Task: inverse folding
């Protein structure tokens, strides 16, 4: 199965 | 006080076309440098970042940085009052919780003024890193739009693969499988018709196709668009509006569990 992480988990807080 | 006038008011209409199916409400960040927006879609896998430079406007005044929250569905309704060739002036008084939009015909024989309520929106800003991407492909935005539309009638996900030979979009579904390859091509007279591949490393990533279809609603903003990819990182789909600004979409890839 393929999973899609939230975009925040890649970018995080500024 | 914030006040900004756009000669080509329909630029805002075009920007809304690309935004309203992704986010329903968002904060516009007003600053002396320009207007920006960052918002996630409801499932938090995609992010849109809009930047409109202050000097893109005819008269630009922003006395102090401020965020104004707007319901984009309502804003789209308000924008229907604007003719395609109208100028558009945005005004927001720091002491008021509303925004005034003024639409004027080029011949100055029609004047429309609409006031819209602002809203308080909780939103978190993400820090988008300045990535060096493994591959950056620039192509005509109409071509990208056609490809993702065509593939979306066949499958739900798209695998994007970039090699030195070009970019390949693949999908599969009940109907069968499809692969569309666009090779680098700079032979056309107009640069906007070129396809260029800037490759550091070959890269292959899989995404939910329906998001690409939504991003492609920004096609009218720019003849060219770009897709920037890095291994296991969100893709960036960009529509640059000349030197006026840009709209960038980020989408998390689907990764094998």
Result:
């Amino acid at each position: 199965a393929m999973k899609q992480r939230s975009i925040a988990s890649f970018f995080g807080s500024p | 006080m914030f006040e900004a006038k756009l000669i080509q008011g329909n630029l805002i209409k075009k920007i809304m076309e690309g935004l309203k199916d992704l986010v329903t409400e968002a904060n516009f960040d007003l600053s002396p440098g320009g207007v920006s927006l960052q918002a996630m879609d409801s499932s938090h896998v995609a992010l849109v970042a809009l930047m409109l430079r202050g000097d893109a406007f005819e008269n630009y005044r922003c006395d102090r940085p401020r965020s104004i929250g707007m319901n984009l569905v309502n804003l789209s309704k308000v924008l229907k009052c604007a003719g395609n060739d109208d100028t558009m002036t945005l005004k927001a008084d720091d002491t008021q919780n509303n925004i005034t939009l003024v639409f004027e015909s080029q011949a100055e024989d029609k004047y429309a003024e609409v006031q819209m309520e602002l809203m308080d929106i909780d939103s978190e800003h993400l820090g988008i890193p300045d990535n060096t991407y493994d591959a950056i492909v620039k192509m005509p935005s109409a071509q990208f739009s056609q490809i993702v539309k065509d593939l979306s009638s066949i499958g739900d996900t798209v695998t994007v693969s970039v090699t030195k030979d070009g970019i390949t979009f693949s999908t599969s579904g009940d109907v069968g499988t499809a692969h569309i390859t666009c090779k680098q091509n700079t032979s056309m007279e107009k640069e906007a018709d070129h396809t260029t591949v800037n490759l550091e490393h070959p890269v292959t990533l899989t995404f939910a196709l329906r998001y690409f279809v939504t991003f492609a609603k920004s096609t009218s903003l720019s003849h060219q668009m770009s897709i920037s990819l890095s291994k296991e990182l969100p893709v960036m789909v960009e529509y640059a509006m000349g030197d006026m600004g840009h709209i960038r979409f980020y989408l998390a890839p689907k990764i094998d569990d």
Q: What stands out?
A: The mean pLDDT of chain A is 87. Chain A is about 30% helix and 20% strand. The interface with chain B takes residues 1-14 of chain A (CB under 8 Å).
